[in-house]
């Protein structure tokens, strides 16, 4: 389960209603949170995330989107999780609207690590019970607990993931 060290409880966000109105609004919100917690420039992050989204949708199915980008000189990978108050069209392959957004930015020189993290995150969110639990969580604290606990097999999260 690759959520730690990408996430901490401060980067798990239960978005207040009405929330973002569009996919770009959701990406911009994720970029703002990533910038706030990383010291990176929010405008650069928005641009990088939107450019990646323009290549192909990061809506991977199951109501989840994984906006991601690489930035040079990043000391550590960073992520943010957003639970949206309403689902948005991310043009996902399964045509399902997105209400769970896991955005991340990784160092530009770490392509293989970036791909491994994306695969592990997608695999975790492919668990319907996990996604249902996230959707039922009524507080930021409950969301953080679900996302930051050890994986279902009990293995601690590895920074090598």
UniProtKB/TrEMBL annotation:
Family annotation (InterPro entries): PTrfase/Anion_transptr, PTS_EIIA_type-2_dom, PTS_SugarTrans_NitroReg
Keywords from the UniProt entry: Sugar transport, Transport
SUPFAM superfamilies per the UniProt record, alphabetical: Phoshotransferase/anion transport protein
Family matches, as Pfam families: PTS_EIIA_2
Record CDD domains: PTS_IIA_fru
Leader sequence residues: none
Span of domain PTS EIIA type-2: 5-150
Annotated GO MF terms: protein kinase activator activity
PANTHER family hit by this protein: NITROGEN REGULATORY PROTEIN, PTS SYSTEM FRUCTOSE-LIKE EIIA COMPONENT-RELATED
Protein name (database record): PTS sugar transporter subunit IIA
